[in-house]
Amino acid sequence: MSVVSFKVRREIKEKMKKYKDRIKWAEELRKFVEEKIRELEAEENMKNIVKELEKIHIKTPRGFSKKSVREDRDSR
Fold first, then answer.
1. Domain boundaries, the chain
2. How far is CA 43 from its chain centroid?
3. How far apart are CA 54 and CA 44, in angstroms?
4. What is the pLDDT along the chain (76 residues), one digit of tens a residue?
5. What letters, b where the CB count within 10 A reaches 16 and e where it falls short, cover 24-57?
6. Prediction pTM value
7. What span, in angstroms and rounded, lies between the C-alpha atoms of 29 and 61?
8. Taking Cα atoms as reference points, which of 53, 9, 1, 48 lies closest to residue 27?
């Protein structure tokens, strides 16, 4: 593991001390950072997927949608 530090306002630090017996601050902050990183990576992955999909040019024959809907309705 590595150490990461950050600054908070003095009043926040005092409140953190007040509740240190109820909350494991390091654990909570670690969870927050890990979740935020997961969110950012998921967002980045989605952007990459969209870019790749935009490169694919799929052409559907004229009337394909109309024909597919008709076939589906007729099959019921």
1. 10-74
2. 5
3. 15
4. 899 999 999 999 999 999 999 999 999 999 999 999 999 999 999 999 999 999 998 888 899 999 999 999 998 8
5. eeeeeeeeeeeeeeeeeeeeeeeeeeeeeeeeee
6. 0.67
7. 54
8. 1
